[in-house]
Amino acid sequence: MPSLGFPELAIILVIALIIFGPGKLPSLGKSVGETIKEFKKASTQLMNDNKTEPEAEVKAQETNAEVKTEDGKS
Question: Which of 6, 24, 32, 69 lies in disulfide reach of 20, CB 3.0 to 4.6 Å?
Fold first, then answer.
């Protein structure tokens, strides 16, 4: 896949300016930026959940083992 150079980006910007107009372009850029920010936040949260999930299972198993041990002593 070829990379986009300056001429290609300029053409895309001109086409977007013609389609959306100069008044809508800033709000469109803002909404695209917010969408990318939310996507990154969700993907980071998903990755963190996947990392902490095995640790939570180990802690839950340890807690269950402690409860069984305490119940066995009584």
Answer: 24
